[in-house]
Amino acid sequence: MIIDSHIHIANNTLFNKKEWRSSTFDFKTSCITKILKDYKKHNILALRDGGDGIFASCMARQIAKDEGMVYKTPIFAISKKDHYGAFLGRAISEIEDFKREFSVLKENKLDHLKLILTGMVNFDKFGDVGEVAFTYEQLEYMVKSAKEYGVPIMVHANGCQGVSDAIRAGVNTIEHAFLISDRELYGMAEKEIVWIPTLSPLGNILDAKDPNLKDQLDVIKRVYDIQIKNIIKAHEIGVKIALGSDAGAYRVGHITGIFDEIKHFNDIGFDKDTVLKMCVENGSKALNL
């Protein structure tokens, strides 16, 4: 069995969000079923979604269950208003907004709480990942709320400050975590936080020498090389690394994404058994299995 610990099923080649909102239940079901059957055919039997704003992953969970698969979803992600991430769910301003949205998530039986803590890697400006969106007090409250409810916390974070805040708050998994230092690596090891470093989005761009991003390739390569160095260091010091492809992202396909991720880890120098352990054993922890 293969586990992809980070996908976005709502981002695919069968429909866009506008089409989804205007389509029939049967159309939605057929699209999601096709994607999941393709995963199943390739022995990818457990998936963890990073959220969407259209409840596609919520539908996928039930269909996956019918297919004998495991599918974990946050229903939708929580981001900060006027910051990165609103397209993955719902943006909030204050804790009162979070309380309201968390009630909706609980009604829909979220499997994990997904928080968008920082921006994404800026391909035009090396080192820029956007500002940390939530205050530490806001982050701490949301993490505590999820723990009291009994679900793990999945956090999108890049850069030293964002990742450091996530570690301090005691989240369960950190997604991406580009451009961090040894301090954050040791913090993840100490707190036994699972790291999903998502190599495929940048790695696939570099492998393709993407002509659409030819002016950004140097920055992408610098960021990617730092991520590789950090993964090697993290493994040496005992950080639990799981494989998540970010399928649905630019140049990362569903099904093919996790095999791209495996290849990128092989290219770093990790042997087959080590990568399989990351994928299955650490992936199981990421999915709270």
Automatic annotation (TrEMBL):
Domain Amidohydrolase-related: from-to ranges: 2-289
Superkingdom per UniProt: Bacteria
InterPro entries, A to Z: Amidohydro-rel (IPR006680), Metallo-dep_Hydrolase (IPR051781)
Coiled-coil portions: none
MF-aspect GO terms: hydrolase activity
PANTHER family: ALPHA-D-RIBOSE 1-METHYLPHOSPHONATE 5-TRIPHOSPHATE DIPHOSPHATASE
Protein known as: Amidohydrolase family protein
Species, as recorded: Clostridium thailandense
